[in-house]
Amino acid sequence: MGLLGAPKNIENFVAGRFVQTGKTFTKHSPVDGTVVGRVHEAGQQLVDAAVRAARAALDGPWGASTVPERAGLLRRIADRIEARFEDLVKAEVADTGKPLTQARTLDVARAVTNFRAFADTIAAHGLDSFITELPDGRRALNYAVGKPLGVVAVIVPWNLPLLLLTWKVAPALACGNAVVVKPSEETPSSAAVLAEIMAEAGVPEGVYNVVHGFGPGSAGEFLTTHPGIDGVTFTGESATGSAIMRAVSPRVRPVSFELGGKNAALVFADADLDKAIDGLARSTFTNTGQVCLCTERIYVERPIFDDVVAGLSAAAQAHVPGHPEDAKTTMGPLISAGHREKVQSYLRLAEQEGAKVVTGGGVPLFGDARDHGAWIEPTLWTGLTNSDRTVREEVFGPVAAIMPFDSEEDAIRLANDTDYGLAAAVWTTNLERGHRVAQRMRVGLSWVNTWFLRDLRSPFGGVGLSGIGREGGTHSLHFYSQPTNVCVHL
Ligand code: NAD
Ligand code: 6OH
């Protein structure tokens, strides 16, 4: 028996129908290693069928759909997600082991918001028009018409599976595209439940397709190398982004990449210490540190260094690892045994690099079935510097290195000394400093005295190894639609 029910058959969804294949792989729960489901892996032919179904949908009535029709459809999808809320929560929790409370308040709640937010965005969106007046007296009216990008490949990771999938599918459908989604092999379930919801909401067949599988030699590669796709929107590791870029480069397709991070927090001596520690605890440990926005580098002004280390380590120790259904649980496992191997390799590396382990550093033992899961202790290090690999490479777990700084310039230099550039958080009660430092962060998103407070209209994305492009609000519309300019002589 799986964590939240009997193991499921997790099928592909192509042209409005669920499709089994001859080849399955097994998805295990990271809570206790039990089997969650058997996933039907899509081969080249099924991926091809999905891309063709998407193209056929664009060539049919969906291609002529109006903005009000699509905004209405997105709202119906949001309503149906609310109606099937607990099914999605169960799917997400079965795959990830995250606490039920988090799946309810963050993951599935955001899926609803994503569809409503992009219904509002598309309904309110107008493109520029202007009169051209040339020196020779000619005049013309220029206006742009938004067309869908076309067949969009949506490739998403396992950390916030439904949240990140809907963050891309909602604007893609708002703009009139048809999508072929490739969920992570670690989290196939919620995309399959969403397929049922799409059908219930009246999404035309072929507009939302799901193909399951892995990256190289599997559905991910078949999709990104398929000549029928018009663009790829991808969230995942930077190295995978690089591989996808190579895959689409022969046909010069646009990409939108939300990639890895090694995000910094800067804590100034004038910060409200309780609020800062509370915020740092959230930014380091939320979702077991598996959020692209999580903090893994914490720079603290020297006079308050010991206080921050003590406060944050108390917060780490207060975490309750446990069963997702237990209301007392505050931290779930890592996504898989394989990912825990990676995180543990950094726990070993940190010690080789001379880190002092302030708290954590090991694997919790439960004395029950959970010892077959992928659990890890929240871990904090001191004694590391920016030249250590542990401080330069993304771990993607509930870990952070805490390091001192002596001046504002010093803090900015240390925070910006990274190949990544997704997010930063500045903790200070000095208003001018907050703005000044936040603006100098080489990142896509800076927070002042908060973290992961997201307005879906704001631009989201990174610089450097953290990605290409921005999504969010009208920024998403720029990727998922292609303006056609019309110039009319007057
Ligand atoms: P991943 O790159 O291993 O996998 C992501 C997706 O890509 C999966 O669906 C996978 O099957 C697929 N994939 C892998 N290789 C592929 C290939 N060659 N061609 C096509 N598809 C391929 O990432 P992950 O381990 O699932 O997720 C964790 C990573 O995601 C971390 O690096 C994290 O920082 C990043 N992430 C970034 C953001 C962001 O918004 N910047 C958000 C969440 C996660
Ligand atoms: C990455 O792991 C989290 C991304 C969050 C969002 O894209 C969002 O919508 O807030």
Please report the number of helical segments.
Answer: 15
Counted beta strands: 21
Described by strand count, sense and barrel closure, the largest sheet is: 7 strands, mixed
What is CATH's topology name of the largest domain? Aldehyde Dehydrogenase, Chain A, domain 1
Structural class: alpha/beta
CATH superfamily of the largest domain: Aldehyde Dehydrogenase, Chain A, domain 1
For the record, the count of structural domains works out to 2
* The CATH C-level class name of the largest domain: Alpha Beta
Using the 3D structure, state the CATH architecture of the largest domain.
Answer: 3-Layer(aba) Sandwich
Main sheet: strand order:
15-16-17-14-13-18-19
- N-to-C span: 72 Å
Assess the beta-strand content as a share of residues.
15-25%
User: Low-confidence runs (pLDDT<50, min 5 residues)?
Assistant: none
Rg calculated over all Cα atoms: 23 Å
